[in-house]
Automatic annotation (TrEMBL):
Keywords: DNA-binding, Transcription, Transcription regulation. This is DeoR family ulaG and ulaABCDEF operon transcriptional repressor. InterPro entries: Carb_Metab_HTH_regulators, DeoR-like_C, DeoR_HTH, NagB/RpiA_transferase-like, Tscrpt_reg_HTH_DeoR_CS, WH-like_DNA-bd_sf, WH_DNA-bd_sf. SMART domains: DeoRC, HTH_DEOR. It holds the Pfam family DeoRC. PROSITE patterns: HTH_DEOR_1, HTH_DEOR_2. Residues 3-58 form the HTH deoR-type domain. It comes from Novosphingobium taihuense. GO terms for molecular function: DNA binding; DNA-binding transcription factor activity. The keyword DNA-binding applies. Transmembrane segments: none annotated. It comes from the Bacteria.
Length: 257
């Protein structure tokens, strides 16, 4: 079992209660105690867990309200490259057909779709309370949310590992963002987000990635999905020729807003 898979399982074990014991990890990971200690040390140094007597726990927020996600808080990210994100959101909304069901993953770029969805009579499944708030004034838009805990930094809902949190709702098209995009695929800063997004991807027939061109400049993070799992990438005119060629070679549709 490689390190990325072990990390995913560690966070799945942590999610229900916020704590997991060393004994449980040894049974879950099929790895040596030394390997598990190295994994936990690496995650603790990254600020994603706290090692305690007998195991590990999720870190509390600075205000003591619960676990935090890595990455830039939503309120800081929303103003970055805003014009590009607005153009990308408008282009993404143009792909929606009246009356259909879609999934919209939380993010500052996917949020920009909302203003252009009014009147389409969509059914929208989203894990983002920001997106819920943006869609609430639209009388013909039906909104569904999964169950789980609210993470305040991003204002998204994440469910415990193994919990069937999604409504029984068919929405084959997924609109999602990413912290970075490279030859390896779409990446996020936090493995907890990766697990949540994988649940959405596994339900989707079509994956549409919304990223401004700056996301091609940083190619580090935990891989959410490979380029071969993405059908369409929507970005802005700042995309480099090298990044555009990478997308073309992966046979992914590219839309430049």
């Amino acid at each position: 079992m490689h390190a990325e898979e072990r990390e995913r399982r560690i966070f799945e074990a942590l999610r229900p209660t916020g704590f997991v014991s060393y004994r449980d990890l040894e049974a879950l990971l099929d790895a040596s105690p030394a390997t598990i200690r190295r994994d936990l040390t690496r995650l603790e140094e990254a600020g994603q867990i706290v090692r305690v007597h007998g195991g590990a726990k999720l870190p509390d927020g600075e205000d003591g309200t619960g676990p935090r996600l890595l990455g830039t808080p939503f309120e800081q990210s929303i103003t970055r490259n805003l014009a590009a994100k607005q153009a990308i959101g408008k282009a993404a909304a143009a792909l929606c057909s009246p009356g259909e069901g879609v999934m919209i993953d939380g993010g500052t770029t996917t949020l920009q779709m909302c203003a252009h969805l009014d009147g389409l009579g969509l059914q929208v499944l989203t894990n983002s309370l920001h997106i819920v708030t943006a869609l609430l004034p639209q009388p013909t838009t039906r909104i569904l949310v999964p169950s789980g805990a609210v993470f305040r930094e991003q204002n998204i809902i994440l469910a415990a590992a193994g919990e069937e949190s999604m409504p029984r709702f068919h929405a084959p098209r997924l609109f999602m963002g990413a912290a970075a995009v490279g030859p390896q695929g779409a990446m996020q800063a936090d493995v907890v987000l990766v697990a949540a997004e994988r649940r959405l991807i596994d339900r989707a027939e079509e994956v549409i990635l919304l990223v401004d061109s700056s996301k091609f400049e940083t190619q580090s993070g935990t891989i959410v999905c490979g380029l071969d799992e993405i059908d369409t990438i929507i970005t802005d005119s700042g995309i480099s020729p090298q990044a555009a060629q990478m997308i073309s070679e992966a046979q992914v549709r590219l839309i430049v807003a």
